[in-house]
């Protein structure tokens, strides 16, 4: 046997053990969720937030590999639809539970109840959030923790674990933001007023209109991230559900060991702080080995965008030690974080993530199809849109899954989108030369085929290039590589790609002025969204839709129907 084959066989054996144990011990977890608007003050400024049972963020869902999650969602928003996406859960056999209005279901109407039921098929740290319009901005989000079965030993150890959900927050309503993005002249959402850690931030109330902000409110008090016992090791499950911001998260004086990314074990590597992009999750180990007579700052900082309008998010790690006051703020100034515009150190972290040697998922040697996808910002009919290979995605009135399963060919665009752009002549350092189109086309992938996708960044209309975290529904992909400048299929195809031990993820950053290459197997029958996880960008059309083996999908539940051409089928 070749030595290089041993880790792959070991990984396969581990997966078999996981599945056997999971099937034998699987449980069902039932939740009843009321989705409603409530007045909240997460950063001391009072405004309406979309809540789960009155709370924002919502409750953390905890389960074990192989368990079934059942969530009855009661839409009590009165005048607004909703849908909930279970971010990172592949929905194998349940594509209608992916929770994307316009792709896998009709939205849940006010006063209606929709029940999501799905199996968690991989241990790790995942997320959930609204996936209707720009509703995620308003606070409907939370975390999902899937643990390994009893008896399975992970490739690291710790004493306790805690969840850390990072976010950003605006004082403008979702409606104001969406209206500005759709208007002519264009009005961007601006930078967030606050960064949140586990749903809490702190806005400078002197900048707010009188009566709208109160720093003494208990729900905007400086949060305690966790209480540390000297000598213990803590696993922090960190997730980002920012709507715009790329972040750097750090704990003063405490380096982190990264051990998991998007539900996959990584070759452990140490960082002083963690760069994390919207839709990503990481698990890190932190050792409580500092002076226990004081407390320490945890902080999140905006990177990739000028943070002058958005103060850092702050929390406290307190030490449980005789003589230390756990409520006392740290005696030092909060850490300032790295230079916000240093792209190189962010790319360096992206390139440092490899699969754990004992858990390398075997990757197909070559692709059956390659998609070279260029993002450009275009002016279409007077409105600013994002396009992929010249097409700005607009969801049809009838969800793709319903339309394609039931043969409603007039419900979405039949002309296929382009696999490539003119990479020989296109200048990525200049704004888009053409206007583009708005449409609802679909990439139809052969079931079981292997697909390479190269995401190519380019300059916006203002001649700047931004970070775009891309998330694939229904799959994990192998991250083949990140590069600067324009991807050259002839020169870069193999020279710069990692085919030995690539990490698998469901969300990956596309860095400014560069490209990112991924590979996945189209083996999950259904219709799946692949999109930038910046909320304003997907709202403006930065996404594509993949269909694979829809004829193999079982009978669709009538509860996902009722809109567009599926009216009367609900």
From TrEMBL:
Major localization class:
secreted
State if Signal is listed as a keyword. yes
User: What cofactor does this protein call for?
Assistant: Cu cation
Q: Which GO terms describe its molecular function?
A: copper ion binding; L-ascorbate oxidase activity
Keywords, A to Z? Copper, Disulfide bond, Metal-binding, Oxidoreductase, Repeat, Secreted, Signal
Known EC number: 1.10.3.3
Superkingdom of the source species: Eukaryota
Plastocyanin-like domain: residues covered: 37-148, 160-316, 418-549
User: Cellular component GO terms, alphabetically?
Assistant: extracellular region
Q: Where is the signal peptide?
A: 1-26
The subcellular localization recorded is: Secreted
Please give the subunit comment from the record: Dimer.
Q: Which family does it belong to?
A: Belongs to the multicopper oxidase family.
NCBIfam families membership: ascorbase (TIGR03388)
Give the protein name, as stated in the record. Answer: L-ascorbate oxidase
């Amino acid at each position: 046997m070749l030595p290089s084959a041993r880790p792959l066989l070991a990984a396969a054996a581990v997966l078999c053990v996981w599945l056997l144990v999971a099937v034998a011990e699987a449980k069902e977890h039932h939740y009843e969720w009321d989705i409603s608007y409530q007045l909240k003050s997460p950063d001391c400024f009072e405004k309406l937030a979309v809540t789960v049972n009155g709370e924002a963020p919502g409750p953390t869902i905890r389960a074990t590999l192989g368990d079934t999650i059942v969530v009855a969602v009661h839409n009590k928003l009165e005048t607004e639809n909703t849908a909930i996406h279970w971010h990172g859960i592949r929905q194998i056999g349940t594509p209608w539970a992916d929770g994307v209005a316009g792709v896998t279901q009709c939205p849940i109407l006010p006063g209606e109840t929709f029940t999501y039921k799905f199996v968690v098929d991989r241990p790790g740290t995942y997320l959930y959030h609204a996936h209707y319009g720009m509703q995620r901005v308003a606070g409907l989000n939370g975390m999902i923790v899937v643990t390994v079965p009893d008896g399975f030993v992970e490739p690291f150890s710790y004493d306790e674990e805690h969840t850390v959900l990072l976010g950003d927050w605006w004082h403008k309503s979702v409606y104001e933001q969406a209206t500005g993005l759709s208007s002519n002249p264009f009005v961007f959402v601006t930078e967030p007023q606050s960064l949140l850690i586990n749903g809490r931030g702190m806005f400078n109330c002197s900048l707010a209109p009188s009566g709208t902000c109160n720093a003494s409110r208990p729900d905007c008090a400086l949060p305690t991230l966790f209480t540390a016992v000297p000598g213990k090791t803590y696993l922090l499950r960190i997730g980002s559900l920012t709507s715009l911001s790329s972040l750097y998260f750090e704990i003063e004086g405490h380096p982190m060991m990264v051990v998991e990314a998007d539900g996959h074990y990584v070759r452990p590597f140490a960082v002083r702080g963690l760069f994390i992009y919207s839709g990503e999750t990481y698990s890190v180990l932190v050792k409580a080995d500092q002076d226990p007579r004081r407390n320490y700052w945890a902080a999140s900082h905006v990177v990739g965008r000028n943070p002058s309008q958005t103060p850092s998010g702050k929390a406290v790690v307190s030490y449980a030690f005789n003589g230390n006051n756990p409520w006392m703020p740290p005696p030092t100034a909060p850490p300032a974080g790295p230079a916000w515009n240093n792209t190189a150190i962010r790319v360096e972290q992206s390139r440092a993530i490899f699969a754990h040697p004992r858990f390398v998922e075997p990757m197909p040697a070559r692709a059956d199809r390659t998609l070279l996808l260029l993002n450009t910002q275009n002016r279409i009919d007077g409105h600013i849109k994002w396009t992929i290979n010249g097409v700005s995605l607009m969801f049809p009135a009838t969800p793709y899954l319903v339309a394609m399963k039931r043969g409603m060919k007039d419900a979405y665009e039949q002309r296929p989108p382009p696999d490539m752009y003119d990479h020989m002549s296109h200048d990525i350092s200049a704004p888009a030369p053409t206007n583009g189109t708005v449409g609802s086309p679909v990439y139809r992938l052969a079931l079981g085929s292997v697909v390479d996708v190269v995401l190519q960044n380019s300059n916006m209309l203002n001649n700047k290039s931004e970070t775009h975290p891309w998330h694939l529904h229904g799959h994990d992909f192998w991250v083949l590589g990140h590069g600067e400048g324009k991807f050259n299929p002839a020169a870069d195809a193999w020279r710069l790609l990692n085919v030995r031990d690539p990490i698998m993820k469901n969300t990956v950053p596309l860095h400014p002025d560069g490209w990112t290459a991924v590979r996945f197997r189209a083996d999950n029958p259904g219709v799946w969204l692949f999109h930038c996880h910046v909320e304003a960008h997907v709202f403006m059309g930065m996404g594509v839709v993949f269909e694979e083996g829809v004829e193999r999908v079982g009978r669709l539940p009538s509860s996902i129907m009722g809109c567009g051409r599926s009216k009367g089928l609900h």
